[in-house]
Every structure is written in C-alpha cells, then in structure tokens.
Write the structure tokens for this entry.
Amino acid sequence: MPKPGHVYILASKRNGTLYVGVTSNLARRIWEHKTDAAPGFTREKHIKEWKRAWKIRLIESQNPDWRDLYEDIGP
C-alpha cells in the first residue's frame, strides 16, 4: 500500500528562500531542511511553476505570521 504524500512549502525565513516538495515523511523532510542533512531540495512540479508572489499569498493565507509549524506535525 503506498504511503500518503505531503506537498510542502518551507521558507528559510519570512520572504526568504522557498522550498517546495513532496514527501511521504514530512517530519523527516523538514528536519533535513532545518539541519542541512540532505543536500539540495526537491520541488513539486505544479507549484514549481507558480510565481513567487502566488506562493507567498498561499503561505500568508494559511500562516500569516510565518510561524514555524514543525512542532505541530509531531513525530
């Protein structure tokens, strides 16, 4: 049975670099970004084509304070 996938958008900081990708283990992938454990990053094809302003609007519509949500996802 396939694992569920998660599409994510991470930001290095408010209005910083945006990382867009897909993973079946969201907690691990965010940890990899936070600790530079994995070189580079992947990007989900559809969101990759979006303009930066569209991605920022999407983030701010769900997380206007750019709060770090890592603690919310649990192990």
Summary: The chain is about 40% helix and 15% strand. The CA atoms of residues 37 and 47 lie 24 Å apart. Helices lie at 26-35, 45-48, 52-62, 70-73. The mean pLDDT is 82.
